[in-house]
UniProtKB/TrEMBL annotation:
Molecular function in Gene Ontology: adenine deaminase activity; metal ion binding
Gene3D superfamilies: Metal-dependent hydrolases
Taxonomic lineage from the root: Eukaryota, Fungi, Dikarya, Ascomycota, Pezizomycotina
Coiled coil location: none
Keyword Ribosomal protein: no
Cofactor(s) for this UniProt protein: Zn(2+)
Full protein name: Adenosine deaminase domain-containing protein
Length: 348
């Protein structure tokens, strides 16, 4: 789908992107050589071809196809080339440079500390790499506030340990890299309330709280109910990442509207596995009911290289939104974001 000049030129805000999901095949190839890591591909074009992933991370629904990794397996396999602070800096700068090219003025990338510490990478290498990129990207006109993610398919205690390690890089008394915590990875039988202790600790540190409620998960409506009404001592999450399944049940979408919880939607992630005529009317119905939303990329290099501009183009083309609505979605993202007021004013 070609990106129209209107979408290309629109100043943008991105609130749902996993930094590890922006690792391009070419940077992965370069880092593999830099770090003497053997990839299971002999040529660069074999590596590139492996990015044509069609499966999502729900093996319980799709069965496993021998030789084809699930989505999250591919995502974590990509992480293996990331070893040193410089690698994490290069990953982050590549994304933030691309942001500048796409006119993304402000972004809140997720990062998965546990994906790296469990491979033996020291947490400070990850966090200092991102911190340096956060600072350097300001010169490109791209501001960022990052989001620490708990990996929900790891033991709860492992996430709490990672949070304790990352805390000196938080906003408030820390170095200011991240202003929020999130919840990502495989949601299968891992409801949000399992992580209540982590959310409580983060809130006590003055951080914001968001969480994934992926489209079409097992128990998706129960998970959404927890995220809207139960977590954070009953206050609910401040945002929900994805959350499209709320459209199915009035108590859920009314809960989003009444509590002012915005959704960070990633249209292409759903379009990979949902008919156009089913998906985009569903997004539009949520919007018509007054649910606040913005449009984002999720894991662009693992999702056919569709970045935030391509995701905005999809709803512009397929939801029947006009230019003023598209501008409003960017304003929604500014409202939903966790930048300081002066940055918000500058990007509004
Ligand atoms: N972590 C990175 N990408 C993810 C996705 N698409 N869903 C859940 N967790 C993720
Ligand atoms: Zn995501």
């Amino acid at each position: 789908l070609p990106i129209s000049p209107f979408i290309a030129n629109l100043p943008k805000v991105e609130l749902h992107v996993h930094i590890e999901g922006t690792l391009t095949p070419s940077l992965r190839w370069e880092l593999a050589h830099r770090n003497n890591i053997k990839l299971p591909y002999t040529t660069f074009s074999d590596l590139k071809a492996s990015y044509a992933i069609t499966l999502n991370h729900r093996p319980e629904l799709h069965g496993r196809q021998p030789g084809i990794p699930t989505f999250l397996e591919a995502y974590f396999a990509g992480c293996e080339v990331l070893q040193t602070e410089t690698d994490f800096y290069d990953l982050a700068m590549a994304y933030l440079t691309r942001c500048a090219e796409m006119k993304v003025r402000y972004t809140e990338p997720f990062f998965d500390i546990q994906a790296h510490t469990r491979r033996g990478v020291p947490a400070p290498a990850v966090l200092n790499g991102y911190l340096r990129a956060q600072r350097d990207a300001i010169k490109l006109g791209v501001h960022s506030r990052w989001i620490f993610c708990f990996l929900r398919d790891e033991p709860v205690q492992s996430g709490l340990d990672a949070y304790a390690q990352a805390r000196p890089w938080a906003a408030g008394n820390g170095k200011g890299l991240f202003h929020a915590v999130g919840l990502a990875s495989n949601a299968y039988e891992r409801p949000p309330m399992l992580f209540e202790e982590g959310f409580r600790l983060a809130r006590a540190d003055g951080l914001h709280v968001t969480m994934h409620c992926d489209f079409g998960q097992k128990d998706t409506h129960e998970h959404m109910g927890e995220a809207i009404f139960q977590v954070c001592g009953g206050l609910g999450a401040e945002r929900i990442d994805h959350g499209l399944d709320a459209e199915d049940e009035e108590v859920l979408w009314r809960g989003l509207v009444d509590r002012g919880i915005g959704l960070t939607l990633c249209p292409h992630a759903y379009h990979r596995r949902t008919e156009t005529g089913v998906l985009f009317p569903k997004i539009r119905r949520l919007w018509e009911r007054g649910v606040k939303m913005c449009f984002n990329s999720d894991d662009p290099t693992l999702m056919h290289d569709v970045w935030v501009d391509g995701n905005m183009q999809k709803v512009y083309s397929f939801c029947g939104f006009g230019k003023s609505e598209m501008v409003q979605f960017v304003r929604n993202a500014v409202d939903m974001c966790w930048a300081e007021e002066d940055i918000k004013r500058a990007i509004y």
